Amino acid sequence: MxxxxxxxxxxxxxxxxxxxxxxxxxxxxxVSKMTIHRDLDDLEQAGVLRxxxxxxxxxxxxxxxSDFRFRERQGHEEKLAMARRALELVEPGMxxxxxxxxxxxxxxxxxxxxxxxxxITNNAAIIDRMRNESGITLIALGGVYSAKFNAFLGxxxxxxxxxxxxxxxxxxxxxxSGRLAYHMDDNVVRAxxxxxASAAKSCLLVNxxxxxxxxxxxxxxxxxxxxIITDRAPDAETLERFRRDDIALxxxxxxxxx
Length: 258
Prior knowledge:
One of its GO terms (molecular function) is DNA-binding transcription factor activity. It is built from ten helices and 15 strands. It has helices spanning 3-17, 22-29, 33-45, 68-71, 76-87, 102-110, 124-130, 155-162, 186-198, 236-244; strands at residues 19-21, 50-52, 55-57, 95-98, 117-121, 136-140, 144-146, 151-153, 166-172, 175-177, 180-183, 199-205, 217-221, 227-230, 249-251. The strands form four sheets. The protein has a seven-stranded parallel sheet. It is globular.
């Protein structure tokens, strides 16, 4: 098996299991552990996985977020439920900002129900989907393309956002702890902050499994958001802390979709 084929097989295993074991991979592909180490090093350098003791994972860490190709395949029903609740905040005629990420891409698809809209986004999946849709005035933010996040980021993106204004911005985050939202990539953080600053209102979308975790960079205080939507209620202690801090949390159940 060629190296590229073996590495693709490792990616497929990660999609299915989220973690892989070094010894198991060596046995599966009948190669040395050193060869697997080099494969994992290559994939980690490409931002596809995070090496851990004895193997690798696509679970997020404080300095790692898995590749967009993994995230778009995970938790689709939960994303649909959150996007449906977020859509309630949109009215025809609005100017809407949507950030990078697989969660945002699901919401972007649903925004067609609310046209006519002006849509501002750096999300390449949304740009590709919306570019030929009638009733959507699409403002595609330029910048440096990131394959890992499938989005445009950097100084050009931030400069463009500083000259635009929206009625509402929808943002996602891989980590919430206490009253702070976090992200592990500084370019993504700056783009999200620029969207918050350029929108009259902002809404944060977060999977319940990401609550109680941190990442390298503080993105925003939860009080900065007019709405926070998650797919399932967090633990009682977290709910009480949100209540005490007067932070409104909307629970979007998948049962709402039936």
